[in-house]
Amino acid sequence: PARPDVVVALLVDLVKPLGAFDRISIGFPGVVRRGRVLTAPNLGTADWQGFTLAEALQDKLGKPARMLNDATVQGLGGIVGRGLECVITLGTVMGFALFDRGVPGPHLELSQHPVHKNETYDEWIGNAALHKVGAKAWNKRVRKAVGFIATLTNYDTLAIGGGNAKRLDFSLPARVRTVSNEAGITGGIRLWDPLLDPLFVAEDTLALRVA
Q: Which of 59, 98, 155, 188 has the fewest beta carbons under 10 Å from its own?
C-alpha cells in the first residue's frame, strides 16, 4: 500500500544521493491545491485525502516545496505560453492539464471521466489497455481520444507526453505534437516562476489581498 508515510520515507531516501539543492518541486498524480492532496485515484484517495505532502517533504528535507498535479508540471515544461494549450500524458494512466497563456487552469480529472461505455480514459488508453488490446487498437483509441479532447477544450495546441507517447504510430493532427519526458524536469523548474506565485498563496492571504 502506498501510504503517505511510506512514500515520504522512500522519497527522502531517493533524494540523499542527489547532492545539494535549494528547492523541491513535486508532481503528484491526483488533484492538489496549495500543497494539499485532495484525491489520489491510483494511490488510494482514502489514505491521501487532506495530506499536506509539500509541507511534509519541506519539513523532512529542510527546503521550500511546491506541488501541482504531475501532468501540469510536465505541461509547464512542454508548453510555449501562447493561447489555450492542452497537455496529456500517456503512461501508466492518462494525465491531463490545461493552460491559458502559460498559466495552469483549474485541474480537471479528465482521466477519471467515462470515455467509452463504462471505461474511463485511464482504463481505455492507459498502459494496461495498451497491453490488453495491442498497439494497433490502442493507437486507434488514442486518435479518437485526441478528437474528443479537441471538441471538449477547443485548444490552440495539444502536447502529448509520457512514456507511451513513443508508441504513437499515426500522423498527428494539426496543432498536436509530442514532447519529451524531460519536460517533467524543466516543468519542475518553472514551478517556481513568479507568474505562478498566486497558485501557492493560502486562501486566507488571498482574501486579505482582495479586501
A: 59
CA distance 30 to 80: 24
Instruction: Look up the pTM and report it.
Output: 0.90
Interacting residues of 168 by C-beta distance below 8 A, sequence separation 6+: 90, 139, 142, 160, 178
Helix (H) or strand (E) holding 87: strand 84-90
The per-residue pLDDT string of the chain (211 residues; one tens digit each, 9 = 90 and over) reads: 789 999 999 999 999 999 999 999 999 999 999 999 999 988 888 999 999 999 999 999 999 999 999 999 999 999 999 999 999 999 999 999 999 999 999 889 999 999 999 999 999 999 999 999 999 999 999 999 999 999 999 999 999 999 999 999 999 999 999 999 899 999 999 999 999 999 988 765 545 555 5
Q: How far apart are alpha carbons 148 and 160 in whole angstroms? A: 14
Residues 37, 48: contact at Cβ < 8 Å?
A: yes
Q: Within 13 Å, how many C-alpha atoms sit on residue 183's CB side?
A: 24
